[in-house]
């Protein structure tokens, strides 16, 4: 028995040392690559700002009666591609969106912001992981758009929701996703009202002299994003309750619905979405970014 205990203890110690060695190797590699990863993360924020800024501009044009239609981030990429040198811009956005997705993945796995393993911290890190997946998917869409020269054919959100509803427990999964998105939207609005997001940036020079204006832009942008995400989440939750995909809306659907309620309401949210794009650029320039644990 004593020998078995010694063997078990030895295996456990060896396993612990191996895990610690892997963690040390990962940490050392990340620290070595930190300058490049930080630059990529900043370029990612700027790329995200370009996409959301375009989304907001298109919606604002619609609200002002200048034609066009409301769209989501994929639609914004398609419109960017139609610009002069649009193909080059899309390739740059592919790099930037991948960079942002990698930054979110590092935030989730390495926890450089020290959220920890408490329930609240794990929820935040899970959100970063989900954001990473979402932005990798958007980067892949942009890659296919750049490579093919046109928007790749794919399933609409309604088709995806109908497929989910056909899964065992699909209604529950859809409802949980909707509630999570609704809750995240509410948190975003709360953060916008409190101005807590400002702790993540270190303003300097011109931005520091106009810190109050920068804060107001951030508040408008973060609040608008929270409202849109919350509305998408509410539609998912309602769709799960009814067991139907007919009322589920994506970002473009939410903006179109707002227009049905009046151009003024759409204009407010569109301007806020444009502000969110500007806020992303502010983060590209001034965000406190720490790579590695």
Compressed to H and E, one letter per element, the order equals HHHHHHHHHH
User: Share of helix among residues?
Assistant: over 70%
Mean pLDDT: 85
How much of the sequence lies in strands comes to: under 5%
**What shape does the CA trace take?**
globular
Using DSSP, what is the number of strands? 0
Individual helix count: 10
Class derived from helix and strand content = mainly alpha
Biggest sheet layout: none
Rg calc: 22 Å
Low-confidence stretches: none
The end-to-end distance, rounded to whole angstroms, is 41 Å
Short structural summary:
The protein has 293 residues and is mainly α. The protein contains 10 helices and no strands.
Topology of this structure?
Elements: H1 2-63, H2 73-81, H3 86-109, H4 119-148, H5 157-166, H6 170-194, H7 205-209, H8 211-242, H9 251-260, H10 263-286
Helix pairs in contact: 1-2, 1-3, 1-10, 2-4, 3-4, 5-6, 6-8, 8-10, 9-10
What does this structure look like?
The chain is mostly helical. The chain is 79% helix and 0% strand. It contains 10 helices and no strands. The protein has helices spanning 2-63, 73-81, 86-109, 119-148, 157-166, 170-194, 205-209, 211-242, 251-260, 263-286. α5 (157-166) packs across α6 (170-194) and α6 runs antiparallel to α8 (211-242). The relative contact order is 0.15. The mean pLDDT is 85.
């Amino acid at each position: 028995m004593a020998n078995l205990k010694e063997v078990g203890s030895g295996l456990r110690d060896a396993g612990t040392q191996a895990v610690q060695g892997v963690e040390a190797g990962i940490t050392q590699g990340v620290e070595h690559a930190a300058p490049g990863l930080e630059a990529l993360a900043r370029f990612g924020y700027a790329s995200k700002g370009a996409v959301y800024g375009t989304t907001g501009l298109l919606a604002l044009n619609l609200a002002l009666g200048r034609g066009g239609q409301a769209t989501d981030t994929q639609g914004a990429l398609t419109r960017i591609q139609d610009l002069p040198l649009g193909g080059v811009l899309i390739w740059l956005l592919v790099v930037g969106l991948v960079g942002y997705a990698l930054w979110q993945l590092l935030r989730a796995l390495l926890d450089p912001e020290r959220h920890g393993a408490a329930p609240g911290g794990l929820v935040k890190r899970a959100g970063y992981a989900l954001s990473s997946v979402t932005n990798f998917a958007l980067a892949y869409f942009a890659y296919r758009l750049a490579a093919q020269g046109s928007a790749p054919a794919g399933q609409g959100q309604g088709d995806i929701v109908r497929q989910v509803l056909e899964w065992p427990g699909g209604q529950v999964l859809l409802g949980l996703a909707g509630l999570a998105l609704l809750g995240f939207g509410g948190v975003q609005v709360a953060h916008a009202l409190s101005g807590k997001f400002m702790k993540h940036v270190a303003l300097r020079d011109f931005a520091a002299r106009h810190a109050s204006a920068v804060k107001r832009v951030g508040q408008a942008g973060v609040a608008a994003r929270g409202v849109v995400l919350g509305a998408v989440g509410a539609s998912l939750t309602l769709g799960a309750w009814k067991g139907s995909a007919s009322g589920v809306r994506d970002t473009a659907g939410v903006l179109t619905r707002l227009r049905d309620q009046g151009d003024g309401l759409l204009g407010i949210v569109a301007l806020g979405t444009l502000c969110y794009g500007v806020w992303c650029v502010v983060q590209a320039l001034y965000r406190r970014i720490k790579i590695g644990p």
